[in-house]
């Protein structure tokens, strides 16, 4: 404590900027960790809260995936003596002028036995359900929704429904709290039978909420209901819906975790670098302390304590920064999850998890301590006699260098071995980590060699400044090795993410070219992921009758529980679709698989489903449906990008029989050759647009929508890229600040012997650019390796889709000027500080 | 013969004191093959706000084994909404609601029978006729001009028990107090009795919801008995026919 006060505090005061830059690494790492996790958790918590509030007193829910089920299931459920109350529900989200509105269709007669509606003023409107029921335009909205739009009881609210444009009447307003807070307050209630019409759901319910009789054991009731309804239905507590969504959005959570861990990892290098420099800089101080009797343990503890304090400060600011970041990101993530998964999201308040904050603090502290272990050990080993001599201690000891190289070689070899055995899941990860470690350990030696290689080039450009800049790097590799390692890791991350994105776009573009070839897509929403509204199957005939329409292919897509995950079932007329679309087979024979699927003798699955859920050709899949379990063998595996969890392609006839559902999400429409597509589109809109909610999207619009969705998804990588570049800049500023402090005497002498200020500036700038060049070279090289592993991990464990390796040269080309420019920018401040420093102070020693 | 007369004479008062027999007598005296009236409903909230609705009610069959259709005629927003009640002697009634605006009927589930009937202070259960054998009766008191009888449902009901006050002279209900698990749920008062075609008929029924502190007054107008009616007019198809 005394040492901290007497030694560390004055040093920190003297090098305030450097201390701030060091902690900035931790701030960023912890901030990204807390920010992304909190935003993610808040969205999931809001989703769970919505489920919880909507569930009311329901202890169990009966569902059959997303497809819904016939109304008569309700009577079956109610026949069970254990069931005290059973209330049918339809859920749908509609886009409004501001945000999505969740509409809950409930049976107004009996729903109060499950949910309570706390209404504004005299609640006659809803307690007199006669008017509410008699008028299908009746709507009950929350106070928040009403206030935002200036609505009152009897106000009118237009909405586009499957019955065409309808004007709804607000008949009651719910007070804030409880149910009214579900979905962030963007909630409306309507009669379920009216909702069936408005959303085109026929005589189907989405689910049944159940309250059990007193004394009924939940498990007993679940078992009895399951036995009564059959395995085509899911009988689960409401909370399991949240779990399903969490598992569906697993990939997103993983991606955000990787970003945060990487940010901390990079932050660790900045701390390591700063402390390594501090040890070098403070050798004399350490020598004096040792000479005065300080033990090696005390010196080691001193440095570790400094690091812990820096870590604590960085972590505290990082947590606050993370919370601010989460606030900004929650809305974006909510929107993204809604678009990608088609599950309505509305982030409410931020959910701060004390465990998460605790973990972040622990991670920040551990990262700081781990980063300081090697410098602290070096400090403890300082020989007091040698330490009190000037100079000669900047370079790495040859022994240390050799040891690093040996470890690097060992890790490199082990990484190759792991790659050879990469078919055993975990080995891919082991190989990945070993490759990174090998690169990190090799980076000082590589930096040294690259700096030497750069010397002639720099000297050629500016004989004095170039040579001085290169020599600074060559003579003090420890000063920059951490920065270069951080830069290398950051750029490798950018390259691997960029490569992954590029390769994904390419694969997606190829899939869209093959699979999405109709001229038009007739849908119920502007976005293909929304499945709230459906068309009646009979509309197909109407569309076929339109002049200029050559073919209409109805497609129904719903998520159902297969292999304990919500998997997208796509039901279409396979025979007709196969005439126009032949997705390249990953397994099986193309002709054969489509024939068998069309004959309803099998199911074609997507490659990502097969990989993520360990499914194989010939395996008989059990697909639960309201009419019972549909058992079908896998007759083919194709690359299909329709859903992240995978897809099952079924013949539509089979779907209609097993789900008792002939509704349609999308009609794929082909125009007669020679017909004017624009006119055909107009005719479709004229014929049906006024009667029902109908959108005619062109092929280009659909492709643009999918590309935009992918952009949004990869938009997350922009955060990662920004973090990586920011960390890199921080590292460079840090290294240069240290370099200038370290070389004050050298720079002072240079000025004293007539060196111009501009020469000093140019020296610093060139040193920064040299650091940038070395970091870019190593980063682009490591990025190539990291991309390989990223693709392998994404293919195997994240999305299950085969992505072809393609180095993102375009990204690399963009990175070079960005990093070199950033390096130059990072050098401006330190360079000015160097030229404006007091010459007397700099030459004080002389 | 004399013995028989004597037996009847001796047992008659006892017979009259049997609560089940009293209820049977009430039902017998109010029996009609069919019934029709136009009802005006006034729902008076705790804050004295009054909502008025009108309906036409038609009924066919004997007590506990009857069918009835009730169709709203006013206000305009609810015109055409109907309710079909099919009473069964051995079990709870079947009830369906018809909503012309969406063109569909909806079965009123048993679990929903305790809910308020379309915003009135009646519940759906109050509209059904239950056969005398679906209850256990106990004569609680002889209050001079009235009997006080306790009735306990043998089958599922929102009520644990009810108290009936029945006038001795004409076997008509005066008042009902219905109790649930937590105490008194609602009271029903029968007022303004008149004889119509020999049947003592209350022209006003007033229901008081204890929890909500609201009242519903049902006034019977144009009440007629034993009109020619067909079974076919009391089916789901008939319910689906708009006014």
Describe the structure.
The complex is a heterodimer of chains A (846) and B (243). Chain A has four domains: 1-56 and 238-393, no CATH class; 60-235, no CATH class; 443-516 and 698-846, no CATH class; 534-692, no CATH class. Chain A has 29 helices and 21 strands. In chain A, strands 12, 13, 14, 15, 16, 17, 18, 19, 20 and 21 form a ten-stranded mixed sheet that branches. Chain A has a nine-stranded mixed sheet with strand order 6-7-5-8-4-3-10-1-11, with helices on both faces. Chain B has 243 residues and is mainly beta. Chain B has one domain (2-240): Clam (outer membrane lipoprotein receptor (LolB), chain A). Chain B has three helices and 13 strands. Residues 1-15 of chain B have low confidence and may be disordered. Classes of the chains: A alpha+beta (846), B mainly beta (243).
Outline of the structure:
The complex is a heterodimer of chains A (846) and B (243). By secondary structure, chain A is of the alpha+beta class.
Strand order of the largest sheet of chain B: 6-5-4-3-2-1-13-12-11-10-9-8-7
- Give the overall form of chain B: globular
Say what the CATH topology of chain B is.
outer membrane lipoprotein receptor (LolB), chain A
Q: What is the count of β-strands of chain B? A: 13
Q: What percentage of residues of chain A falls in helices of 4 or more residues?
A: 55-70%
CATH classification, class level of chain B: Mainly Beta
The total tally of domains of chain B equals 1
Name the helicity range of chain B. 10-25%
How would a textbook summarize the main sheet of chain A?
10 strands, mixed
Integer count of domains of chain A: 4
Over the alpha carbons, how many angstroms does the gyration radius of chain A reach? 32 Å
What number is the mean pLDDT of chain A? 82
Greatest interface? A-B, 25 and 28 residues
Instruction: Look at the structure and give the mean pLDDT of chain B.
Output: 87
| Residue windows where pLDDT falls under 50 for at least 5 positions of chain B | 1-15
Structural class of chain B: mainly beta
Strand content of chain A: 15-25%
């Amino acid at each position: 404590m005394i040492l901290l006060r007497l030694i560390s505090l004055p040093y920190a005061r003297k090098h305030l900027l450097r201390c701030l830059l060091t902690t900035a690494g931790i701030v960023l790492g912890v901030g990204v960790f807390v920010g992304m996790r909190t935003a993610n958790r808040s969205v999931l918590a809001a989703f769970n809260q919505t489920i919880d509030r909507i569930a009311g007193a329901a202890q169990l829910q009966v569902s059959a995936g997303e497809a819904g089920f016939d109304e008569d299931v309700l009577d079956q459920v109610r026949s069970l003596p254990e069931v005290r109350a059973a209330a049918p529900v339809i859920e749908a989200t509609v886009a409004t002028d501001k945000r999505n509105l969740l509409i809950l269709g409930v049976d107004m007669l009996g729903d109060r036995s499950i949910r309570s509606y706390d209404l504004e003023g005299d609640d006659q409107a809803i307690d007199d359900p006669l008017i509410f029921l008699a008028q299908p335009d009746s709507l009950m909205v929350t106070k928040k929704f009403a206030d935002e739009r200036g609505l009152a009881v009897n106000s009118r609210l237009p909405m586009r429904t499957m019955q065409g444009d309808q004007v709804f009447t607000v008949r009651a307003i719910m007070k804030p709290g409880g149910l009214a807070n579900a979905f962030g307050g963007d909630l409306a209630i309507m009669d379920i039978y009216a909702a069936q019409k408005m959303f085109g759901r026929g005589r189907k319910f989405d689910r049944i909420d159940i309250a059990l009789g007193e004394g009924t054991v939940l498990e007993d009731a679940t078992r009895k209901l399951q036995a009564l309804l059959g395995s085509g239905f899911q009988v689960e507590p409401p909370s399991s819906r949240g779990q399903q969504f969490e598992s569906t959005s697993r990939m997103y959570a993983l991606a955000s975790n990787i970003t945060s861990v990487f940010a901390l990892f990079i932050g660790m290098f900045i701390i390591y670098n700063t402390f390594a420099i501090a040890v070098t800089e403070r050798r004399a101080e350490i020598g004096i302390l040792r000479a005065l009797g300080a033990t090696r343990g005390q010196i080691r503890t001193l440095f570790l304590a400094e690091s812990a304090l820096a870590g604590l400060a960085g972590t505290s600011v990082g947590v606050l920064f993370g919370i601010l970041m989460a606030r900004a990101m929650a809305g974006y993530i909510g929107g993204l999850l809604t678009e990608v998964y088609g599950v309505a999201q509305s982030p409410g308040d931020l959910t701060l998890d004390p465990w998460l904050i605790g973990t972040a603090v622990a991670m920040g502290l551990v990262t700081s301590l781990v980063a300081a272990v090697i410098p602290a050990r070096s400090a403890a080993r300082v020989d007091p006699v040698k330490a009190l001599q000037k100079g000669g201690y900047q370079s790495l000891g040859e022994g240390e260098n050799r040891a690093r190289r040996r470890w690097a070689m060992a890790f490199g070899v082990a990484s190759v071995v792991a790659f050879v055995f990469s078919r055993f899941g975990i080995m891919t990860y082991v190989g990945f980590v070993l490759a990174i470690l090998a690169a990190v350990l090799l980076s000082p030696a590589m930096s040294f060699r690259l700096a030497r290689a750069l010397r002639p080039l720099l000297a050629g450009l500016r004989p004095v400044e170039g040579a001085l800049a290169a020599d600074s790097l060559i003579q003090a590799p420890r000063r920059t090795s951490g920065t270069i390692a951080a830069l290398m890791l950051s750029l490798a991350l950018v390259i691997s993410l960029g490569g992954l994105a590029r390769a994904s776009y390419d694969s997606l573009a190829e899939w869209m070219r093959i699979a999405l070839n109709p001229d038009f897509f007739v849908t119920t929403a502007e976005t293909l992921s929304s499945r709230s509204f459906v068309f009646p199957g009979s509309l197909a005939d109407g569309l076929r009758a339109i002049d200029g329409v050559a073919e209409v292919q109805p497609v129904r897509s719903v998520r159902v529980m297969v292999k304990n995950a919500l998997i997208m079932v796509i039901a279409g007329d396979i025979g007709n679709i196969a005439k126009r679309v032949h997705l390249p087979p990953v397994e099986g024979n193309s002709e054969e698989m489509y024939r068998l699927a069309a004959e309803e003798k099998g199911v074609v699955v997507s490659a990502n489903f097969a990989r993520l859920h360990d499914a194989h050709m010939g395996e008989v899949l059990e697909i639960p449906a309201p009419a019972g379990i549909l058992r079908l063998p896998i007759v083919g595996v194709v690359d299909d990008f329709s859903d992240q969890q995978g897809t099952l392609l079924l013949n539509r006839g089979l779907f209609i029989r097993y789900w008792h559902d002939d509704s349609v999400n999308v009609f794929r429409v082909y125009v007669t050759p020679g017909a004017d597509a624009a006119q055909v589109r107009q005719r479709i809109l004229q014929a049906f647009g006024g009667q029902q909610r109908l959108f005619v999207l062109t092929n280009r619009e659909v492709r643009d929508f999918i590309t935009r969705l992918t952009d949004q998804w990869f938009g997350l990588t922009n955060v990662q890229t920004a973090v990586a570049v920011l960390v890199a800049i921080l590292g460079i500023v840090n290294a240069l600040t240290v370099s200038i402090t370290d070389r004050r005497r050298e720079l002072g002498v240079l000025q004293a012997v007539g060196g111009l200020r501009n020469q000093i500036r140019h020296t610093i700038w060139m040193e920064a650019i040299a650091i940038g060049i070395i970091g870019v070279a190593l980063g682009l090289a490591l990025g190539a390796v990291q991309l390989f592993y990223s693709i392998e991990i994404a293919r195997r464990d994240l999305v299950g889709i085969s992505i072809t390796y393609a180095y993102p040269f375009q990204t690399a080309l963009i990175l070079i000027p960005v990093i070199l420019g950033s390096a130059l920018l990072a050098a401006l401040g330190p360079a000015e500080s160097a030229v404006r420093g007091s010459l007397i102070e700099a030459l004080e020693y002389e | 013969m004399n013995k028989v007369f004597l037996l009847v004479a001796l047992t008659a008062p006892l017979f009259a004191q049997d609560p089940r027999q009293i209820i049977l007598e009430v039902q017998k005296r109010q029996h009609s093959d069919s019934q029709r009236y136009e009802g005006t409903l006034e729902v008076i909230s705790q804050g004295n706000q009054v909502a008025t609705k009108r309906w036409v009610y038609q009924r066919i069959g004997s007590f506990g084994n009857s069918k009835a259709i009730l169709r709203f005629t006013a206000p305009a927003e609810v015109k055409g909404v109907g309710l079909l009640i099919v009473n069964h002697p051995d079990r709870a009634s079947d009830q369906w609601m018809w909503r012309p605006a969406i063109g569909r009927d909806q079965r009123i589930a048993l679990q929903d029978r305790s809910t308020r009937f379309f915003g009135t202070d009646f519940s759906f259960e109050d509209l059904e006729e239950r056969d005398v054998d679906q209850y256990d009766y106990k004569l609680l008191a002889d209050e001079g001009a009235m009997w006080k009888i306790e009735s306990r449902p043998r089958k599922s009901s929102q009520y644990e028990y009810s108290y009936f006050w029945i006038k001795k002279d004409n076997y008509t209900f005066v008042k009902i107090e219905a109790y649930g698990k937590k105490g008194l749920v609602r009271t029903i008062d029968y007022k303004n009795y008149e004889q119509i075609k020999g049947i003592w008929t209350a022209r006003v029924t007033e229901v008081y919801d204890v929890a909500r502190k609201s009242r519903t007054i049902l006034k019977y107008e144009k009440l007629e008995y034993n009109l020619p009616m067909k079974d076919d007019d009391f089916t789901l198809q008939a319910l689906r026919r708009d006014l």
